[in-house]
Amino acid sequence: MFKLIYHFFVPHKGNNHRSKIIHNSSLFALILLILFTSWFSILINKTHPEILGISYSISDQELLRLVNEERIKNGSSPLRMNNKLINAANNKANHMFSNNYWAHFAPDNTTPWEFITKSNYDYVYAGENLAKGFVNARDVVEAWMNSPAHKDNILSRQYEDIGFAIVEGNLQGEDTVLVVEIFGKEKNQFLAKVEDENFLIASSNSAVGLEQAIDINQTAEVPLLGESNISNTVKGGAIQETLISSKPSIDIFISSKTFSFLILSVLLIALILDYTIILKKRIPRIVGNNIDHIILISIFIVFIFVHNIGVIL
Amino acid sequence: MKIITKHTGLYIIEISILAVGFVLLLNSSYPFINQFIVLIFMLGFYTALGVFRHRMDHDIHLKVVLEYIFISLIIALLFLIINIGRI
Fold it and tell me: What's the pTM value of the predicted model, to 2 decimals?
């Protein structure tokens, strides 16, 4: 065993003064191994996603809790889940999937505000945050909080309501989970408040505005939206939790990163050993420049650690 | 160490371009295919720069070129593997 490790990692006469693992024949064998592993992983991922796939779990209640935690921490009042905004967010998510775009404004010039007004939410203020590719709610909210524009939306005191859509689908050729977050302050609520105050002052029985506002909120329904994976349902005015999750036996994201890290670490160790030993022995040879390879592999190892498929807009 | 001091400028260019390229690849808002094209350009640049330096040192050989291509291929394939969930 020791002899084998020595042969693979330490340059000596037996391996022509070049660590065996960085001989062209070994590199070629490594390429074949990676190709086979990729093919096998894709095959298992497509045929048995319950065994090998991306592990994720995002719920709207968790998103709401985290957003409100941030708001309370920053002195803003907590937001309420609003059926009409949930409807608007679901429509926006489905529009993005059906028209295959990743943007606030659609290629057909549909604006984010149109989804809100079409859901009968008469807004005074409204805002939209988007996220895709994240595996849990905490990472989504953290990413938004790290972006000044998204953070402003989350902490804005102008909003009172919020609606989420969490939808799985294929966007621009990639299987992903899309999160749409829509904020708003409704005109009716604003008017209702004013009328309610008038009602209290005048001690009359005409608090119609307030009743209407409550009535609208309680009877709004989220329509079924084609065959998408939206699990958000509203029954009798109560908002049920939307939870999109997948728990495969092996998380493909973690396992592929580990596999890549192991391969690159082995190569890096061999290259460093080879370089330092040959530099000491001063043996001339015609091979590629180890420093080049060490630079490339080191940068890629850092990339593996910081790489995240989640993105916000 | 001699080779590092001899080609310091080229190493600085190489590290800068590779680092900038990988930072670009970190932004997953671009479609995967665009990211992969960026990676191919980076690895092409890496191979071309390596070959250029060996030519300057008069020790260019087919097996040296192959070594750069193989290392680049390994990186490209591993990039595909860590993005397998998006494909």
Answer: 0.73
